[in-house]
Amino acid sequence: MTKIPKILLIDDDPDFVEATRTVLESKPYEVIVSYDGNDGLRKAREENPDLILLDVIMPVKDGFSTAEQLKKDADLKKIPIIILTSYAERGGGSSIAMSGGLALETEDYIDKPVKPEELLKRVEKYLKRAGLDVA
Description:
- This protein is an alpha/beta fold.
- The protein has one domain (6-129): Response regulator (Rossmann fold).
- Helix content is 41%, strand content 18%.
- α3 (63-72) links the parallel β3 and β4 (81-85).
- α2 (37-47) runs parallel beside α3.
- The two termini are 13 Å apart.
- The mean pLDDT is 88.
């Protein structure tokens, strides 16, 4: 039996989360949701997802700090991370330095809003790279 890829979506915007979950669940993906970085780290440890979609601008713990902690964790560092953010659009509206994200070892970086087909294409690319059978 083929394993259904598990995707952890960490984003504090409920509307974006629901829209993205709908897009991802149009494929045979299991989607786990977290609304902040600390909870996202906990869920990553509990669920051991195949891929993580991570927002940057979040309260409590921003996406860059979360990604850094994921990549430092021996059990989680191999999980591909795609950073999803409206950072470029919001520009100076945040105290988070863009350079922080460029130094991270994340697999990809997508600006919001993202077209559903582009999101699915990128997700599929990294799941295949991780050796998962993607329908």
